[in-house]
Predict the structure.
Amino acid sequence: MFLAWKEIKYSKTRFALIIGVVVLISYLVFFLTGLAYGLAQENRTSIDKWDATGIILADESNLNINMSMFPKDQMDEVDAEETASLGIASSVIQLEEETDDDSKINVTFFGIDGDEFITPEITDGDMFSDANEVVGDLSLKEEEGYEIGDELSLAGMDTTVTLVGFTENSKFNVAPVLYTDHETYQHIRASGFGEREEEIISAIVVRTADDTLEEVSIGTDDLELYEINEFISNLPGYNAQVLTFGLMIGFLVLIAAMIIGIFIYVLTLQKSSMLGVMKAQGISSTYIGKSVVGQTFLLSTIGVLTGLGLTLGTGLALPNAVPFQNNGLFFVSITTLLIVVALLGAFFSVRTVVKIDPLEAID
Amino acid sequence: MKLIELKDVTKSFDDGRKKIEALKTTNFSVEEGEFVSIIGPSGSGKSTFLTIIGGLQTPSKGKVYINDEQFSELAEKERAKKRFREIGFILQASNLIPFLTVKNQLQLVNKINKEKFDIKQVESLLSDLKIEELQDKYPGDLSGGERQRAAIARALYHDPSVILADEPTASLDTDRAFEVVEILARETKKKKKATIMVTHDERLTDYCDSVYIMKDGVLNKK
């Protein structure tokens, strides 16, 4: 470390430039991770909120909750510790007094039974208690400026609903969720499918204490039970999104490591005559190699941590509409990964050091 | 006491077509406190001779002893360790590391040996060589003569038994060259080292106890 640090201090500009490149790349990696994570979360926060173990959908829905539909009384046949009925319907809302297209918002209605476990915690206002009352995701307030008491008109319907409360982290398919009771839900859903005599729901959410679905029985062939994670990864577009970002981030990590590795390699080649002299004096390849690895560690650590700092700073400055979200676990593992892979790159340089013939220093 | 001893040492290379004898059978020794110079035209085998003593290459035949210990047959790693301990190199282009100050060059030795750094020891050595005030300067900021004196300080610092100097005056003007050789001679006596200086400048040999001439791989005492 002695040599590594002294050299960095001596050639400040050169090493500042290298660190600069590392900072920019790691900034990009972290920022992209934050965005990818934030976007992924917007697909699923409303589901994660349930803290559920499994979900029951109509057998023929092919894991697509939007296509799942069955009578609510089928719930009686399901045997599980905790169950909750859920109806889902996409819609477009607009403040009643507005008419222009810009003020329309895509939302998903969750029809729930107010005393079952998937009922959200209210952070602002009250829980719905009457028909045509809804509780909305907090983003409606933060990003759209909606307030408690607002009347919302629904596209293609005569009814309006009243916003009575807000809850946090409730997004489904990147759109805010509006919670309402089953009666109102039936009405909204019927506008797409026609009136029905029996109550229709989309899914039954299941929660068990031991987090397995072994004890759950559904009692009919028309329904199918899925793990909640399987359900999430089959949300339309979710997996494609996560894979795309994951690959990009993976490649960026590799590229970052290669760049650090190449820099260190070029520096080592430049110094090879000096390293030859050192080896002639009897300084071991191990000592020199350690100092090369130590230097890589210093450069990558300083660079990556600065990049992380910039990302966290940017995250604070971003407007709410950007789906950026920090995740400690991802940030820590990417930091570690970047540094470890950079160190692997440095081992090419160590090989060069070992190969340098001290004899050339004298001839 | 003989600090350097070569017994029937030869070095030959095979360049594919014929065998080249860079160093013919040589017996040679240097005593404690003795300052020896080796002169000869370039390509005569001086450097080969020096690098064999320094253990940078091994002789084809024969044995090299440093401080009474068999040196040439040690494994490469062990040889490097012993070289670090027992031999101080002074090279033509100076053996200093460009990004370390004079003081740090010496401190590096302590770091490698995992010893405590003693600034007093550094200062007394540097003032001995009259470069005390240069301890915080980088090699790039020193003049040629100062740099070679710093190189001598580096070579002497870890108290080796042998000093090997390869054309230490090549980049210096006559006055500076004499100064450097004089210091080398003085320190050899004072610190009881065995010093070999390879040079092509015969005028510098006045300070030496004995002078050898190398020609076509044969070493003869002058």
Q: What stands out?
A: The mean pLDDT of chain A is 90. The longest strand of chain A covers residues 82-95.
